[in-house]
Write a structure and sequence with these properties.
Largest sheet: 7 strands, mixed
Number of strands: 17
CATH class of the largest domain: Alpha Beta
CATH topology of the largest domain: Quinone Oxidoreductase, Chain A, domain 1
Order of helices and strands: EEEHEEEHEEEHHEHEHEHEHEHEHEHE
Number of domains: 2
CATH architecture of the largest domain: Alpha-Beta Complex
Structural class: alpha/beta
Low-confidence stretches: none
Radius of gyration: 20 Å
Shape: globular
Length: 353
């Protein structure tokens, strides 16, 4: 085992604080990684505050990890010490069910093992994430960082990027389609960039006039201020797809009315009950669909990293000293970041843990 330094949540109502713990001794198929950068996801905040009622403390958040390989197990063939790699939201799955065999490990029929807050399938310990100086992960769930990719801005691609890329691919959204992107945050701005790379006509829906120019700068063809009924009326029955990146409860019905018949509204941000309820009329009379999508599989994530490197697609980030993580959480909760914090893990050396 090796000693790891980190920041952890110790209770739902307590700030994150320095924490030292033991990482497991690498197994034969494991890759040991020195963490260089870790993105800060809204899910980290939810988990730290036990918003989903499943947190076990202490918990080290972080599932947008970029680092350098320090050693590999005897059965590892794809990586060697010194390689630049990434780790996303999953670190294991059963690897034998139909979902795993189909390359969608996130839908593992036995439940995938998440990067933090999950039970390790072999030793029963609770996984700890990337707000730390090191991590040990099975080779299958380690990603290669393509040559030329910016490492810091690539970190959020492992969650925000793949969360929006996977439904684009699954639903076959491409040239000739009109896509509405609801919300202009970490997920939303990546949805715009990736959809444009696939030749899609993209309209951003935002409640804020202040984000209109931001949306255009990120490549949106059109912007609709959704709090303006007149603007919403002009786009009624216009879109093939909606990608809904909003992580809190909101009214889906106005956006459903903006879909054509046979249109699909894809939820990628909301994990809570839909409130207010969806009006069945908006579905039945136009054969519309409300769907959901969760991150993406390992092969799909590697495909996305390659695409981002080739087309110079990056996540807009603000670098964060880990000693300011609680301030970062407060700002993220207020939407005061454009569009993703990324922790420079070198700053962890200056903590007391």
């Amino acid at each position: 085992m090796s000693q790891a330094k980190s920041y952890a949540a110790f209770a739902a109502d307590k700030p994150l604080a320095p924490f030292s713990f033991e990482r497991r001794q690498p197994r034969a198929d494991d890759v040991a990684i020195e963490i260089l950068y870790c993105g800060v996801c809204h899910s980290d905040l939810h988990f730290a505050q036990n918003d989903w009622g499943m947190s076990q403390y202490p918990v080290v958040p972080g599932h947008e990890i970029v680092g350098r390989v320090t050693s590999v197990g005897s059965q590892v063939s794809r990586f060697k010490a010194g390689d630049l790699v990434g780790v996303g939201c999953m670190v294991d799955s059963c690897r034998t069910c139909s979902a795993c065999n189909g390359g969608v490990e996130q839908y593992c029929l036995e439940g995938s093992t998440m990067t933090y807050g999950s039970e390790d399938r072999q030793d029963g310990t609770i996984t700890q994430g990337g707000y730390s100086d090191s991590i040990v992960v099975s080779e299958h769930f380690v990603l290669s960082m393509p040559d030329g990719i910016d490492l810091a801005s690539a970190a959020p691609i492992l969650c925000a990027g793949i969360t929006t890329y996977s439904p684009l691919k699954h639903f076959g959204i491409g040239k000739g389609h009109k896509l509405g992107v609801i919300g202009m945050g970490g997920l939303g701005h990546m949805a715009v960039k990736l959809a444009k790379a696939l030749g899609v006509e993209v309209t951003v829906f935002t409640r804020s006039d202040a984000k209109v120019e931001e949306a255009r700068r990120n490549g949106a063809d059109h912007v609709v201020v959704s709090s303006d009924p007149a603007q919403m009326e002009t786009v009624a029955e216009s879109f093939d797809f909606m990608m809904d990146t909003v992580p809190v409860q909101h009214d889906l019905n106005p956006y459903l009315k903006a879909l054509k018949y046979d249109g699909t509204h894809i939820l990628v941000g909301l994990l809570e009950p839909i409130e207010p309820p969806v009006e069945a009329f908006n579905l039945v009379f136009k054969r519309r669909v409300v769907a959901g999508s969760l991150i993406g599989g390992i092969a799909e994530t590697q495909e996305l990293l390659t695409l981002c490197a080739e087309q110079n697609i990056t996540c807009d980030i603000e670098m964060l000293d880990i000693n300011n993580i609680n301030e970062g959480f407060e700002r993220m909760a207020k939407g005061d970041v454009r569009y993703r914090f990324v922790i420079d893990m070198a700053t962890l050396k200056n903590t007391a843990a």
